[in-house]
Specification:
Blueprint lengths: L1 H10 L23 E2 L2 E2 L11 H12 L26 E7 L2 E6 L2 E5 L6 E2 L7 E2 L16 E3 L10 H7 L6 E5 L3 H5 L6 E4 L4 E4 L2 E6 L19 E5 L4 E4 L8 H9 L4 E5 L6 H4 L6 H11 L4 E4 L13 H12 L7 E2 L6 E3 L1
Parallel strand pairs: 5-8, 8-9, 9-10, 14-15, 15-16, 16-17
Antiparallel strand pairs: 1-2, 3-4, 3-18, 4-5, 6-7, 11-12, 12-13, 13-14
Length: about 350
């Protein structure tokens, strides 16, 4: 159902009026440019919505495929969580899609956690997983922080969030207006941030940074909540989590302000047809350029191999990533492609 929402989010003006929009920025100035009447917008000069007449037929064709479970040969390895209990200061585990477990100077962090078998407003009608999560939830170490990039179903999964919220010490970090969704479910341990706002939590600096995307969980809430990426600044390392984004000039600005990054988690999947999805989803070539803009040292490709959301073969993104790296004569060792469930130090 994600691309049914895409159709309306990109082509129709939001129909809800939200009264809690921040009237001023932190310095008492005017409303930031990414704030819009009743919601939010992309501000990059290159951003252009795809035409409604082109988007509609493709969205309808995608809806037909949601009822069947996709088949994909995505490499995976068994992970029983034992290595995550060794207390190493810097590890990264790819659980699948945009879900990663980051161990960062004694803090356990999950990004956009999704463990459900299907995602969507109605479970039986949602998109089915092609690949099981790389580690069972009950094998995870205690989670300190959960980062949410935006409220799409493949990034904000209700069943998973409710399970994680059973730990009273888990704190959720979300972009503007997403806190309401948590509070509606009785979850209060939530920190809500605007672009360029940051907090320090257990010695780790957590900064909400821009992305070029959109939001909405149904037709009536298009772009009424913010989307974002996240920057983590520790004592000895820096990490960037890209969430979900089209390529835009914001990557260079983030790199200028906070780079270089020791590790950048960047989306490389869900990009075809290109003429429709280029504004909001990077392909591997875009991701490589974003990595360069961010001044990254190593990159892990995420947002692929789990859900059949778009037209490219599910196994294709890492192949295209390797081709782009070779074409640009960049060091292969800087661009990581994990098996689902794989853990490495970073």
């Amino acid at each position: 159902m994600k691309y049914l929402r895409t159709l309306f989010a990109l082509a129709i003006v939001p129909v809800l009026t939200v009264s809690t929009l921040r009237a001023q920025d932190n310095n008492g100035g005017s409303i930031p440019s990414h704030h819009d009447d009743g919601g939010f917008r992309n501000t990059d000069p290159g951003f252009e919505k795809p035409a409604f007449t082109k988007m509609a037929p493709w969205v309808i064709s995608r809806l037909i495929s949601f009822s069947s479970k996709p088949v994909a040969d995505i490499p995976r390895m068994y992970n029983d969580g034992a290595a995550l209990k060794q207390g190493k200061p810097y590890t990264i585990t790819w659980v699948g899609h945009s879900t990663c477990l980051i161990q960062f100077e004694g803090i356990n962090i999950l990004t956009d956690p999704v463990w459900s078998d299907r995602i969507g407003p109605v479970g039986w009608l949602g998109e089915a997983r092609a690949s099981e999560p790389g580690i069972a939830m009950d094998k995870l170490p205690p989670i300190d922080i959960v980062l949410i990039s935006h409220n799409h179903y493949d990034h904000l999964d209700e069943k998973t969030i409710l399970t994680l919220s059973h730990n009273p010490n888990t704190r959720f970090f979300v972009p503007l207006r997403v806190r309401d969704w948590f509070e509606d479910r009785g979850i209060s341990n939530v920190e809500e941030l605007d672009w360029w706002e940051g907090v320090t939590y257990k010695g780790l600096k957590i900064i909400c940074t821009p992305a070029q995307h959109f939001s909405g969980r149904w037709i009536s809430d298009n772009n009424t909540t913010l989307w974002c990426s996240w920057v983590l600044l520790g004592k000895g390392r820096r990490l960037f989590f890209g969430g979900d984004s089209g390529y835009f000039s914001g990557f260079a600005e983030i790199g200028k302000r906070f780079g270089p990054f020791d590790l950048a988690l960047l989306p490389i999947g869900a990009y075809e047809p290109r003429e429709l999805l280029k504004p909001v989803h990077m392909n591997p070539s875009d991701a490589v350029q974003a990595f360069i803009d961010l001044r990254g040292k190593k990159m892990l490709g995420i947002h692929w191999g789990t859900f059949r959301q778009t037209d490219e073969p599910m196994e294709e993104p890492p192949k295209k990533l390797r081709e782009e790296v070779e074409r640009r004569h960049l060091p292969q060792e800087s661009f990581l492609v994990f098996m689902i469930g794989e853990t490495r130090e970073w």
